[in-house]
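Quarterly update from the structural biology core.
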Amino acid sequence: MTTDEHAERFTLLRPLLFTIVYEILGSATESDDVLQDSYLRWAEVDLATVRDTRSYLARLVTRQTLNTLRASTRRREDYVGPWLPEPLLLDENDPSADVVLAESVSMAMLVLLETLTPDERAVFVLREVFGFGYDEVAAAVGKSVAAVHQVAHRAREHVQARCRRFQPVDTAKTALITEQFMAATATGDLAGLLELLAPDVVWTADSGGKVTASRRPVVGARKVATVLLDLFRTGRERPGLRFQIAKYNNAPAMVATIGDHPEGVLLIEITGEKITNLYIIRNPEKLVAMTVPREISR
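Predicted structure, tokenized:
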């Protein structure tokens, strides 16, 4: 078997592998590192011994991902303020037609997965999102099939208990709410903003302590509206700062930039035709990954 065949198989499955790793880690940068290390290991494998390339590579990257996640646990414990996943810029040409997969890369789901143990997270992603068999998942996480059944059940119950029950918002409605939100924040329209926000809307800011931001989530429409209007008022005073709409983690987002330099990204979660969550990532270390569109694929 040639190196070219190793590269061809890995490249074909890379979108899937990246998505698995990103959903477990919540870091695009670390996901790239895991894939690079995994490829070096893969390049040494005798392909004649590989029965199922998809299953083999999923197992390989999952093991590397769990090692990375366990090593980073202490860093996250010492993190200043809320920790949010790195924003993932989606390719607008990719319709992400798979509803389950689209929901799995949402910021809300990634934040929820953060509440699971590393093993629970890996099992949930492999089994519930990508449909790997219990025997494949067991091999990937180094547990028995019986143990994986228990972990999967526990993780599934945890996620279902915390997932919002909502009716899907169509694309046109999402675009309209986003436009109204942009207009209200740009003009300082408090009443208009309050019309868009759910009564229990939550504002979560990730700065890593490197820039000014709320270090605790802000809850309630009026409190969140005040934070928003103050933020955009300050932004308008900064020379060269501009805002544009993009799609991150399968949600509409506002990206603030000065020149080509990203200053922050605000993800807008819409549930039941109201804005229920606002996630703002301002940690400069997490904004690097924003500039590169990435594929999301099954």
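The radius of gyration is 20 Å.
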